[in-house]
């Protein structure tokens, strides 16, 4: 019998796989236990999660006693918005300029290298969807700063930035790509991630840690910055011919804003999420603060975002937009699409 885990569960499972500290793993495991379907077919999975929670709590306790859990990590940034995107690149490629152009973050933009010493988060937007951009210290000669590898694994996606005005353009790209493989990751430019054969009906066999020995797929978008520089387009075409990468490439200019809307749209698609809007009976839809759900999320998933009591007592919903007739009545199992307006009835 299939376990039939929801997209919300799968998202929590992905956070567990990418977690780099006992506390982060514990938070993800507890979310997985809350979201896993409660029926006979999932009893084994529930027990596996509970056992792992017990072990992870012991690890958290040990870290607290030794004081290791109190150490400050300058690369650790709490995730916010629809997803967290870490900017990766060599010195002076313009990472800070991109974050400064799209967010209100207080980044230091300078002509000299290493002006960024710690992770600096800022909130950018694709239309009405908030996406967190995190400016990180530069990668020098292919070597990441302390804590950066963990930050890359934790991020939902990576924005690999290269400089179209730089002579070492290809080296910048190849050194950053090599960094992924050296730390157990495989860069891909797709929303869907395949974690291998650890899944049974989409649910992790959590008693096994075999996935830790496999390459972890990591969503990566490559942006070629400084399109406003002389000869930039010729350099971009030459770069594409010589690298022949499968990763998605976008030319941009943080100075003029060229390509930035397309970049944000590409990141939104890469995060594999949708936005849906709530509506109270007899009232207009609230278009100010969309709910962000994984692709494949259901009415039940949205109801849980509102409140667990709403999800437990949900009778039906009415939907506007997408593939349904406006105002059509649906059950909690109805799969939502980007832009749906949802009216919950309890």
What do these coordinates show?
This protein is α/β, with parallel strands linked by helices. The protein folds into 3 domains: 7-70, Up-down Bundle (Methane Monooxygenase Hydroxylase, Chain G, domain 1), CATH 1.20.58; 84-270, Rossmann fold (3-Layer(aba) Sandwich), CATH 3.40.50.300; 273-345, Beta-grasp domain (Ubiquitin-like (UB roll)), CATH 3.10.20.30. Helices cover 33% and strands 21% of the residues. It is built from 10 helices and 14 strands. Strands 1, 2, 3, 4, 5, 8 and 9 form a 7-stranded mixed sheet that branches. A 5-stranded mixed sheet has the order 11-10-14-12-13, with helices on both faces. The radius of gyration is 22 Å and the shape is globular. The two termini are 30 Å apart.
Please outline the helices and strands.
Blueprint: H1 7-18, H2 22-35, H3 43-66, E1 84-89, H4 95-102, E2 120-126, E3 129-135, H5 148-154, E4 157-163, H6 169-182, E5 185-188, E6 199-200, E7 203-204, E8 216-225, H7 232-243, E9 249-251, H8 260-270, E10 273-278, E11 291-294, H9 299-306, H10 308-312, E12 316-320, E13 328-330, E14 341-345
Parallel strand pairs: 1-3, 1-4, 4-8, 5-8, 8-9, 10-14
Antiparallel strand pairs: 2-3, 6-7, 10-11, 12-13, 12-14
Helix pairs in contact: 1-2, 2-3
> CATH class of the largest domain, please?
Alpha Beta
Domain module tally: 3
The number of distinct helices, counting runs of at least 4 residues, comes to 10
Main sheet record? 7 strands, mixed
Unreliable stretches, pLDDT < 50, 5 or more residues? 197-202, 208-213
Secondary-structure element pattern, one letter each: HHHEHEEHEHEEEEHEHEEHHEEE
The CATH homologous superfamily of the largest domain is termed: P-loop containing nucleotide triphosphate hydrolases
Q: Over the alpha carbons, how many angstroms does the gyration radius reach? A: 22 Å
End-to-end Cα distance, whole Å, is: 30 Å
- What CATH architecture of the largest domain would you give? 3-Layer(aba) Sandwich
Shape: globular
Count of strand segments = 14
Strand content: 15-25%
Overall average residue pLDDT: 85
Structural class: alpha/beta
**In which range does the helix fraction lie?**
25-40%
Give the CATH topology of the largest domain.
Rossmann fold
């Amino acid at each position: 019998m299939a376990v039939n885990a929801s997209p919300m569960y799968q998202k929590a499972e992905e956070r567990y796989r990418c977690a780099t500290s006992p506390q982060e793993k514990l938070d993800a495991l507890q979310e997985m236990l809350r979201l896993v379907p409660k029926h006979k077919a999932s009893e084994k999975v529930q027990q596996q999660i509970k056992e792992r929670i017990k072990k992870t709590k012991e690890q958290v306790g040990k870290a607290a006693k030794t004081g290791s859990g109190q150490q400050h990590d300058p690369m650790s940034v709490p995730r916010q918005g629809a997803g967290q995107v870490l900017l990766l690149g060599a010195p002076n490629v313009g990472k800070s300029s991109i974050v400064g152009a799209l967010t209100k973050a207080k980044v230091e933009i300078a002509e000299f290298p290493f002006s960024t010493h710690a992770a600096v988060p800022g909130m950018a937007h694709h239309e009405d969807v908030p996406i967190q951009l995190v400016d990180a210290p530069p990668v020098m000669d292919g070597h990441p700063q302390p804590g950066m590898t963990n930050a890359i694994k934790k991020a939902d996606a990576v924005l690999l930035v290269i400089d179209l005005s730089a002579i070492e353009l290809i080296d910048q790209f190849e050194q950053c790509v090599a960094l992924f493989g050296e730390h157990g990751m495989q860069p891909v430019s797709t929303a869907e991630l395949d974690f291998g054969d650890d899944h049974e009906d989409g649910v992790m066999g959590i008693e096994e840690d075999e996935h830790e020995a496999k390459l972890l797929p990591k969503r990566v978008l490559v942006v070629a910055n400084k399109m406003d520089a002389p000869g930039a387009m010729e350099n971009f075409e030459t770069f594409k011919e010589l690298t022949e990468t499968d990763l998605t490439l976008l030319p941009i200019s943080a100075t003029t804003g060229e390509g930035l809307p397309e970049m944000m749209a590409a990141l939104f698609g890469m995060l594999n999420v949708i936005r849906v809007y709530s509506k109270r009976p007899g009232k207009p839809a609230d278009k100010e603060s969309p709910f962000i759900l994984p692709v494949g999320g259901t009415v039940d998933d949205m109801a849980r975002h509102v409140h667990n009591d709403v999800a437990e007592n949900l009778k039906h919903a009415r939907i506007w937009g997408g593939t349904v007739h406006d105002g059509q009545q649906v059950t909690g199992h109805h799969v939502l699409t980007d832009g749906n307006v949802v009216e919950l009835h309890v």
